[in-house]
From TrEMBL:
<dbReference type="Pfam" id="PF13546">
    <property type="entry name" value="DDE_5"/>
</dbReference>
<dbReference type="InterPro" id="IPR012337">
    <property type="entry name" value="RNaseH-like_sf"/>
</dbReference>
<dbReference type="InterPro" id="IPR038721">
    <property type="entry name" value="IS701-like_DDE_dom"/>
</dbReference>
<protein>
    <submittedName>
        <fullName>Transposase</fullName>
    </submittedName>
</protein>
<feature type="domain" description="Transposase IS701-like DDE">
    <location>
        <begin position="5"/>
        <end position="159"/>
    </location>
</feature>
<dbReference type="InterPro" id="IPR039365">
    <property type="entry name" value="IS701-like"/>
</dbReference>
């Protein structure tokens, strides 16, 4: 239901599937899959559950379409503990990239329209995931670490950062990765082909590339992505656009936690986690689609935000003495003042 609803509202041929994980802090040891583990959300090791999520970035917005609870090996090796937390006996240990592949497979097998897959280093650094996507002719722009070994000009491995250092000045172009809170997100980008032995005509239709992003500040930080795509689609601007959409899953996590209670649960068992998470994701999807529909805005008002839609729903569904017209007029007043500001 969740996936079908999101695709119906946001679906388009060149949509981007984004994979990432987020953590849920816990105090005890009985919640399914909980343990002290690293979470990129907090940037440190804490006692937490971790969920892997699949986000659909399509026409005018993005929303989640799937989720999997990461169950550490210490749990799957202890079947008594798993049984106490309601984890089915069929659940075996799976890495985060393997969970991502499971969700991607469900989406692709269901015919979800998409042009690209993207994700951070956790997923881009997994060669099995990359090879599986290639086997399905699924284009991707996946982040990798700077020391990722790649075939550049031949079948000899070269680190990604060494390739970037060897690129001439003319290889770089300043391109926007999309609008941010403070304007366009400008970086210098370089794109260079990677070597592959491609025998058949079908194999030669696709290309492998290294996409490098360089910040404009004094530190000149670099970020790296491996690309697999039809040569006709692999333009610098197109690939930068895909890489730039990866941040939409991060804003999605913020919205689902802040507005839809994604992390506000006390359930411990496996089934309870999936039920709560799914309902929170569905609530977020509804808010996103309402915002997308509301982008046609009367002059002098800012577009409806997820926060404003949530406020309106709460006031209308649980209104006291105020009429719907009164609630809507106050919303228009707020949006008018935001527009003027």
């Amino acid at each position: 239901m969740l996936r079908s609803y999101v695709v119906e509202e946001l679906g388009e041929r060149d949509a981007v599937l984004i994979v990432d994980e987020t953590g849920f802090i816990k105090k005890g040891q009985h919640s399914a899959g909980v343990q002290r583990q690293y979470s990129g959300t907090a940037g440190r090791i804490e006692n937490r559950q971790i969920g892997v999520f699949l986000c659909y970035a399509g026409r005018g917005g993005s929303a989640f379409i799937d989720r999997e609870l990461y169950v550490p090996k210490a749990w799957t090796d202890d079947r008594v503990r798993c049984e106490a937390a309601g984890i089915p006996g069929s659940v075996e240990f799976a890495t985060k990239p393997q969970l991502a592949r499971r969700m991607l497979e469900r989406a692709l097998d269901a015919g979800v329209p998409c042009g690209w897959v993207t994700g951070d280093e956790v997923y881009g650094g997994d060669r099995q995931l990359r090879l599986w996507l290639e086997s399905r002719d699924q284009s991707f722009v996946l982040a990798i670490a700077k020391n990722e070994p790649l075939w550049w000009k031949g079948p000899d491995y070269v680190r990604a950062d060494r390739i970037a250092q060897a690129l001439p000045a003319r290889a770089w172009r300043r391109v926007s990765a999309g609008a941010g809170a403070k304007g366009e997100r400008l970086y210098d980008w370089a794109l260079t082909p990677l070597w592959r032995l491609q025998i058949t005509e079908e194999e030669r239709r696709f290309g492998h590339y290294l996409l490098v992003r360089r910040s404009l500040d004094e530190e000149r930080e670099h970020a790296y992505c491996v690309v697999y795509a039809p040569r006709s689609k692999a333009t610098r601007q197109a690939l930068v656009n895909v890489a730039g959409r990866r941040r939409e899953i991060e804003t999605g996590f913020e919205a689902t936690k802040g507005e839809c209670g994604l992390d506000q649960y006390e359930v411990r068992r496996w089934q309870g986690w999936y039920r709560h998470i799914t309902l929170a994701l569905l609530a977020h999807a509804v808010l996103v689609t309402l915002r997308v529909r509301g982008k046609i805005t009367p002059e002098g008002l800012v577009p409806l935000s997820v926060q404003e839609i949530r406020r309106l729903l709460c006031r209308i569904l649980w209104r006291g003495a105020h009429s719907i017209a009164y609630v809507l007029s106050w919303s228009a007043w707020r949006r008018r003042h935001q527009y003027r500001a």
